[in-house]
Design goal:
With about 325 residues, the chain is α+β, with helices and mostly antiparallel strands. The chain is about 40% helix and about 20% strand. Dinuclear copper ion binds next to loops. The site of dinuclear copper ion (CUA) has 9 residues, from loops.
């Protein structure tokens, strides 16, 4: 029996591939909740950016269509017309080649300047320092005395100043729903700001290639009404509880025996600084900088073999007896 393979050069094969590529491009920005979309703004800054984007898109689309129509008319002129001078004359060349492009470029320049002015850093009451690491984010609230990682809590409706820098290579902070990108440099503090005009969770992403796990350098912004934000701050300032059971006490010992404390801090207890601060790890939404939901199973898996989950990150495997791993996770779960 003979089977025939589809002809790779057939028009159907070509169209289906082009169609699949187009569908990928069109769906690439889709997410049901739009938690990471600059076209679904949740602040005045991102509304401004979205407006500029649509303006540029529309202008460029009109120019593209005009150029394509003119190209079509030029290419498909009747043979007897080809030797003649352009029927449209010199004035057409001057208007369409000089005047119209000048007006379009000026309009784009003015629109960009308008957006630039609207994106200037406003007066802010809340300041957050964000430090980029390969591949996670340290988040500090200097006035409130809070250190956390991979999540930014902000009050709704209030602009927040961000002081950005990097501990190693260049990263870039981008929370598309809330504002544009700002680079994080190792040798200079860059200022940026965000605000959210409604409560919600917005996803951010490192926007500067920074190594093998660049794509998994994510963070979440949780925008809360002012009272809830204040409650969050108060809860973060509470000292971590003392172990209240044998298992939890054992877990705290394992934290030292397994050398976790060399890299991780727990406020008032351990002082490691190379990895994320774990003071209130139990209340975080994710682990591994947005990779996994924070739950017991994922925590245990991460501690046992972080390299299997996020290859290349600085945390080594930790070989623990099952009961010690259980106790360690139990201890971490008390850090609320
Ligand atoms: Cu950090 Cu890309």
């Amino acid at each position: 029996m003979q089977t025939t393979l589809p002809d790779r050069a057939s028009p159907f094969a070509l169209y289906s591939r082009v169609g699949a590529a187009l569908a990928m491009v069109l769906c690439g920005g889709c997410h049901a909740d739009h938690v990471q979309s600059m076209l679904h703004p949740a602040s005045s800054a991102s509304s401004e950016i979205a407006w500029l984007w649509w303006f540029l898109f529309t202008v460029c689309l009109i120019v593209l269509i005009a150029v394509m129509v003119l190209t079509y008319l030029a290419v498909f002129r009747r043979p007897e017309e080809r030797e003649e001078k352009s029927p449209l004359g010199t004035r057409f060349i001057v208007v369409s080649g000089v005047l119209i492009p000048a007006v379009i470029l000026l309009a784009i320049l003015l629109a960009s300047v308008k957006s630039q002015v609207a994106l200037a850093i406003p007066e802010t009451d809340v300041t957050i320092e964000v430090v980029g690491y390969q591949w996670w984010w340290e988040v500090r609230y200097p006035e409130e005395g809070i250190v956390t990682a991979n999540e930014l809590y902000i009050p709704v409706g209030e602009p927040v100043l961000l002081k950005l820098r990097s501990a190693d290579v260049i990263h870039s902070l981008w929370i598309p729903n809330l504002n544009g990108k700002t680079d994080m440099l190792p040798d200079k503090v860059n200022l940026a700001w965000i605000a959210a005009d409604r409560p919600g969770v917005f996803r951010g992403q490192c926007a500067e290639y920074c190594g093998v796990q660049h794509a998994w350098m994510a963070l979440e912004v949780v925008a809360l009404p002012r009272e809830e934000f204040d409650e969050w701050v108060d809860a973060r300032r509470q000292p971590v509880p003392e172990p209240d059971s044998e298992t939890v006490q054992r877990g705290k010992e394992v934290f030292v025996e397994a050398a976790c404390h060399n890299c991780h801090a727990v406020d008032g207890v351990f002082e490691g600084r190379r990895g994320p601060d774990l003071t209130h790890i139990a209340t975080r939404r994710t682990i591994g900088a947005g990779m996994l939901p924070n739950n017991r199973g994922n925590l245990a898996g991460w501690i046992s073999n972080p390299q299997a989950i996020k290859p290349g990150n600085l945390m080594p495997r930790t070989f623990l007896e099952p009961e010690d791993l259980h106790a360690l996770v139990e201890y971490l779960e008390t850090l609320e």
